Structures
1.
Amino acid sequence: MTTTARSHADAPRVAAPNPHDFLGIDALLSDDERLIRDTVRAFVRERVLPQIGEWFEHHTFPRTMAKELGDLGLLGMHLQGYGCAGTSAVAYGLACLELEAGDSGFRSFVSVQGSLAMFAISAHGSEEQKQTWLPRLAAGDAIGCFGLTEPDFGSDPGGMRTSARRDGGDYVLNGTKTWITNGGIADVAIVWARADPDDGPRSGSIRGFVVPTDTRGFSTRNIERKLSLRASVTSELILDEVRVPASAMLPGAEGLRGPLSCLNEARYGIVWGSLGAARACYESALAYARTREQFGKRIAAFQITQEKLVAMMLEINKGLLTALHIGRLKDRGEAHPAHVSFGKLNNVREALAICREARTILGASGITLDYPVIRHANNLESVLTYEGTSEIHTLILGQAITGESAF
Ligand code: TGC
Ligand code: FAD
């Protein structure tokens, strides 16, 4: 039997793949999803990209942006009621993607406000807590933060020492939280504490408290000299005999399950968001390679450059399919936390590799803020660590497939 090689002329006439959406994933989205995606993309192009280099350089997140993000309906957008937009998980993921194509600091702001602070109140709060805080947080009139990590308990929050001592009709909070996004600009903090500290370490019940940041004894100290996520405020929260009424406790969250349920939401946003940073770096490297000449040729014509660009394009498309699949599972109520760990581990790891590789294509130009690549690569170092390090997500997945806990 003889075989005849098919030429391109024999192939069915289909459009050549788009280098910016190679697998045509756009076609898998609904009109509503594309509209939200395009709206956020335009916002990032007009309001974030022109100034992000300066904000990153000056280590600042402009507080006025909270209101703009609120006006767009992006804060707590996947939550229902109380001024929240009530979108699908996929739409929320697409917004995270576009925001992080601008800068991880913007996606972080939206993650912490919507998926951590607001979700904690929405899922576990009392009616009074919801009515007091959710509309203001959704509008961007108030800023929220989420205090879980402590100086001695990062990956292992179950060991936390922050305490909530019952005193008559009040609780009195003592302890220190650290690495808290938005801490220094927040109006309200969700503080996780051990509510019966006299029972000893690891016992007792972890509870969440809704703490207005102007409560006496509550103070913050910003963490300076960060070389990553510079367009984001990261702070210590110091709680020194902070007295709150018992009604400040989140009634629906008891044990470590409470804060971890919030992390599922924020981790999900990162599954998408990290690919925004990766896409921005791929596009920057592709554009640069098509114009930069060395040895009398465009560097895009060198095989090694092409290999790098192709590897980036493959991982972005694979990552997007993963994100979309997990998003559709989430919208059907079928996403397990381990699915989210799959996406967070894979997509952040690949996004960071893409940003670093993109930096090499830009040569020396790649190390400046004139191009986005080193900024994104530096940001993703934080993203790899927060919301569960890559090692912790590996162990979550290891446990899911072997049944053995190796923490
Ligand atoms: P473990 O015994 O496994 O679990 C304790 C209880 O929690 C339940 N659970 C979950 N519930 C909901 N969602 C999840 N993903 C859950 N994972 C576990 C579990 O069923 C159990 O429930 P119950 O009722 O039986 O008590 O707890 P462990 O102490 O062994 O820890 C497990 C581990 C290591 C996975 C967990 O501690 C962990 O995820 N560590 C990583 C910590 C982390 O991710 N911190 C993030 C801080 S916030 C942040 O980084 C914000 S950055 C924001 C930004 O700027 O974008
Ligand atoms: P550690 O837990 O000390 O880990 C150090 C190393 O040991 C890591 O490589 C880790 O993977 C590894 N390791 C730990 N345990 C194991 C194990 N069992 N097996 C194998 N390896 C292990 N937290 C909040 O609560 N709220 C926030 O808003 C917030 N925002 C943040 C913003 C930024 C910019 C950053 C950088 C962090 C933020 N965090 C926040 C904290 C973040 O969640 C923690 O940094 C993270 O959980 C890791 O904790 P750690 O830094 O103490 O590292």
Note: The domain at 258-402 is CATH 1.20.140.10 (Butyryl-CoA Dehydrogenase, subunit A; domain 3).
2.
Amino acid sequence: MKVAVLAGDGIGPEIVAQALKVLRTLARDGLRIELEEAPFGGAGYDAHGDPLPETTLKLARQADAVLCGAVGGPKYDTLPRAQRPEQGILRIRKELGLFANLRPAVLYPELVGASTLKPEVVSGLDLMIIRELTGDIYFGEPRGRRKNASGAREGFDTMHYSEPEIRRIAEIGFRTAAKRNKKLCSVDKENVLETSRLWREVVSEVGKDYPQVEVSHMYVDNAAMQLVRNPRQFDVIVTGNLFGDILSDEASMLTGSIGMLPSASLDARAKGLYEPIHGSAPDIAGKNLANPLATILSSAMMLRYTFNQDEWAYRIEAAVKNVLARSYRTADIYEAGTRKVGTNEMGDAVVAEL
Ligand code: NAD
């Protein structure tokens, strides 16, 4: 199993170093994994004048999975658009054909106080949002600006999904639900949008191949409401790019802590790019303050979704749970009465647990 490791900028190198410690610990226990690092984002620009250098892209293509830290920082904010670190992320997703974004939102019992919702509403939360990443109104044509008949300026975009695009993301939704609690909720706006009518039809057709998964359909406005009213009713949610963009951010905030949340972006053969959902946090970079758990949990997702190594993934997740139960906290999740540790110490604690 070959992994391209792209640490990136800001806190990226610090948090990725902790995930590498964890993976190397498992390698000593028999996990067969090869890790190769390459510059990416601002670091790619510094080394080769390009946020996604040719050599980095080549490595990412050859690898079975890509593990990323985060990119960006004030130093790069004045660069022309094409050289900005964030363009590196957009380009690598496109080059690797990553069309499915998986974002779990898990609330650990020890962190229930970090959520803005009442403990009785969120405790035990464990849901997965699957968002289509490469289609929908973000990419649909025609799009643009024009003057209408009365001379007023107008902007327009096109919402668009084809059957194969819906089918492949639905497949990932059903397969993921089959591995979890076997409930899939497909979110659309079928009462208003033609695109959603096709979406619902195709999701239902794909569902016939997964009789073990209970499928339901929900309008996006209701889903936004249900996520704060009773989020535990969900196991897996599958939805399009626009609705998923909004719902996945809403869901992540249910857990209250950005430093805890991993993500995966997959292609049709489950090759994936794994990264924490947060950015490069320049305000705390280099200070041993960043929470590395989102990145460590991203590496667990990599073992589960690309390498089909559920056992190893479970070991990492259990170690993270135990470390929290033993009161280790980085500054972002610290509460009185717990043990405040730095980035490195948190990584070491997970390794010790393993
Ligand atoms: P951010 O996620 O980097 O930071 C937001 C806040 O959360 C900051 O206060 C930060 O200190 C805190 N934070 C983030 N991750 C943390 C962690 N692991 N542990 C503890 N605290 C953490 O978002 P931002 O400040 O809007 O963006 C900073 C830079 O990151 C920008 O250049 C932005 O473009 C980039 N960015 C990159 C990605 C990515 O690489 N995929 C995603 C989002 C933002």
Note: The two ends are 20 Å apart (CA to CA).
